[in-house]
User: Which sequence fits this backbone?
């Protein structure tokens, strides 16, 4: 009862505060709306992309003839050799060209059989056009992974009809923007805790019979409720903007929910370590904004240098985006995102345990 | 008048709600509370009076189990602050120095939160809330979020939050800090209603507040109780001097010299002569002035204040 009262009070303090609510929900929704408007399907450009097939297998041909033409933003032009493709790229007639090396089909087949494989595509693009090249890298990567990871018997490998090729910008961008929204739970969680600490409300309640576990549970229930509401709202909004969820909605929700727990845990840590809102706020933004960029909220992390990508993968958000894109755009199940999922579970548990320990220490001092 | 002393806390006396024994708190090199020995009777309204930094709030924080003492101990209703913090928290109510409220909650929600944390059932809570809101003049605006309240209303809410669970001992830390005289007076009237029904430990640096509200006053400075007693006891027995202020004409050097020869302390400024002595007879002073050639226009005996007591004891004013 004590816990529910404390949780209820924390919730009221959040949803009755227009600024806090606007920050928590409005900020990411505006981003989503902006991205939705910018990349709406009516105005989405089509990029001419050259393809050179050095593999010449049924699988590589299926990839070129069945999969790539289905991608709305790609205008596929086949070439016999890379020289002529390079010439057209220099003339500006191509945005990029992709070379499918020998062994591509063999590697794809290995993947389908559940064996270890190394799928390589060589892509050449005009590096002066960063935005286009970045979108093309992301799209080609997503489509190739969709093609490679789907588990169907080899005998029907030339007819991969279940592969989602209708990837539009909403599908690609939405998981990143949702993760950005979930990242905002870090400053929100930290602020709720620090504000109570700074304004003395926590001290006041510490003169009552409420125990540390009651406070932690009170904050936890409130923040989890906020996270659930936030994720549902973002997913519905993204759906309205055109995001198609090919895979399980529940799995996508679960991935985002685990990420929400990670954000709450990090927020609790920052909130416990900070003495004031003025201290916590910049600390949270210093942490969450670079992380949003590194994790690929707004663009694919494929374009990042490897050391930055390694940093991104040390945090949960890049894993969330990969896993969510897998579920949303490629329809993969838990088995395909198992590693990312496990990483999120471990991160959420660790962030929570550290958050609880630090918060407990704060209350004792 | 003497300062009550307390034996170590194992000797719990049922007559006392709060007993401290050599209670000490040190912050680095600063001794905030220095070996405090204090007994507060059950049902008493006891005021700790002292300037900022005297150690009043630190004392309350230790008694509320928010702060561990560096040395010594204390009991609240017989429970040891070092060993039975949870028990103490069940029977105390605390109104902190800062107005600590949840801005987006209304007054009823505040009372419900504190009441529920203390395990009071909803029906009882509702009855008590209405009574307290009515008593404190907040019933009309009980549904409004408290961010719309005035400073005085917030302070009143701050106080009733400490009373909603019907505690045995109430700690009011500077309950009228920062309020205008009218709002302060209103809060005093509310506090007076709880006298005798609760043991109240109030801290203040307002002399008139301690004077008006308390049964007994402990004057605190630099972490120690330097005087203790009722307001009258402190003002009379501590000072042992009386002062007369006389407005007069013809305050010549002869008059002043004659007065200085007769009384302990004579101060003259702007046609006023201020005479202080252990024994002062009103008629005798006026007659002496007349005889010496002065024309007395008005005269009165200055009532001693707690500030005079503090000045006498420490050589500084309490507002410093």
Assistant:
């Amino acid at each position: 009862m004590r816990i529910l009262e404390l949780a209820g009070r924390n919730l009221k303090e959040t949803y009755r505060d227009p600024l806090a609510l606007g920050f928590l929900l409005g900020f990411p929704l505006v981003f989503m709306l902006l991205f939705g408007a910018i990349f709406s399907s009516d105005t989405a450009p089509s990029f001419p992309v050259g393809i050179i097939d050095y593999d010449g297998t049924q699988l590589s041909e299926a990839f070129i003839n069945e999969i790539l033409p289905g991608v709305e933003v790609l205008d596929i032009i086949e070439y016999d050799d890379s020289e002529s493709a390079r010439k057209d790229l220099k003339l500006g007639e191509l945005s990029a060209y992709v070379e499918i090396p020998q062994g591509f089909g063999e590697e794809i087949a290995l993947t389908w059989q559940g064996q270890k494989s190394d799928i390589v595509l060589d892509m050449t693009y005009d590096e002066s056009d960063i935005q286009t090249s970045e979108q093309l890298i992301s799209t080609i990567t997503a489509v190739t992974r969709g093609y490679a990871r789907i588990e169907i018997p080899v005998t029907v490998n030339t007819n991969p009809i279940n592969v989602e090729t209708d990837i539009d910008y909403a599908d690609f961008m939405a998981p990143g923007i949702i993760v950005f929204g979930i990242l905002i739970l870090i400053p929100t969680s930290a602020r709720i805790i620090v504000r109570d600490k700074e304004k003395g409300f926590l001290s006041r309640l510490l003169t009552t019979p409420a125990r540390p576990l009651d406070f932690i549970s009170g904050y936890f229930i409130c923040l989890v409720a906020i996270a659930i509401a936030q994720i549902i709202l973002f997913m519905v909004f993204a759906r309205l903007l055109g995001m198609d969820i090919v895979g399980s909605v529940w799995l996508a929700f679960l991935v985002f929910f685990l990420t929400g727990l990670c954000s709450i845990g990090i927020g609790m840590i920052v909130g416990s370590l900070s003495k004031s809102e003025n201290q916590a706020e910049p600390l949270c933004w210093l942490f969450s904004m670079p992380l949003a960029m590194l994790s690929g909220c707004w663009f694919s992390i494929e374009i990042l240098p490897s050391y930055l990508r390694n940093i991104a993968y040390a945090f949960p958000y890049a894993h969330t985006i990969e896993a969510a894109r897998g579920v949303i755009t490629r329809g993969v199940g838990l088995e395909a995102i198992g590693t990312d999922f496990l990483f999120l579970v471990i991160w959420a548990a660790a962030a929570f345990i550290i958050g609880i320990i630090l918060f407990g220490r704060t209350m004792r001092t | 008048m003497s300062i009550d002393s307390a034996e170590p806390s194992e000797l719990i006396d049922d007559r006392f709600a709060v007993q401290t024994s050599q209670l000490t708190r040190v912050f680095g090199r600063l001794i905030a509370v220095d070996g405090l020995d204090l007994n507060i009777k059950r049902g008493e309204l006891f005021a700790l009076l002292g300037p900022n930094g005297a150690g009043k709030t630190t004392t309350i924080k230790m008694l509320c189990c928010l702060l561990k003492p560096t040395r010594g101990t204390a009991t609240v209703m017989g429970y040891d602050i070092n060993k039975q913090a949870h028990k103490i928290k069940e029977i105390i109510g605390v109104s902190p120095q800062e107005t600590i409220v949840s801005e987006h909650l209304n007054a009823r929600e505040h009372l419900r939160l504190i009441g529920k944390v203390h395990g009071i059932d909803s029906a009882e809570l509702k009855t008590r809330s209405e009574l307290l809101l009515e008593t404190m003049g907040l019933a009309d605006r009980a549904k409004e979020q408290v961010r719309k309240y005035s400073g005085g209303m917030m302070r009143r809410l701050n106080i009733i939050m400490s009373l909603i669970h019907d505690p045995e001992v109430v700690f009011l830390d500077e309950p009228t800090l920062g309020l205008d005289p009218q709002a302060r007076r209103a809060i005093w009237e509310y506090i007076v209603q709880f006298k005798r029904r609760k043991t109240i430990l109030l801290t203040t640096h307002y002399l008139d507040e301690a004077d008006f509200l308390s049964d007994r006053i402990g004057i605190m400075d630099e972490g120690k109780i330097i005087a203790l007693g009722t307001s009258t006891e402190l003002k009379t027995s501590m000072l042992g001097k009386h002062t007369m202020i006389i407005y007069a004409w013809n305050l010549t050097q002869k008059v002043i010299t004659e007065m200085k020869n007769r009384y302990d302390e004579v101060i003259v400024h702007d046609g006023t002569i201020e005479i202080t002595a252990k024994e002062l007879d009103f008629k005798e002073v006026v007659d002496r002035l007349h005889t010496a050639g002065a024309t007395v226009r008005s005269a009165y005996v200055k009532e001693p204040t707690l500030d005079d007591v503090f000045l006498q004891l420490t050589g500084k004013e309490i507002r410093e």
Summary: Chain A touches chain B at residues 1-2, 5-6, 9, 12-13, 16-17, 199-201, 203-211, 214 (CB under 8 Å).
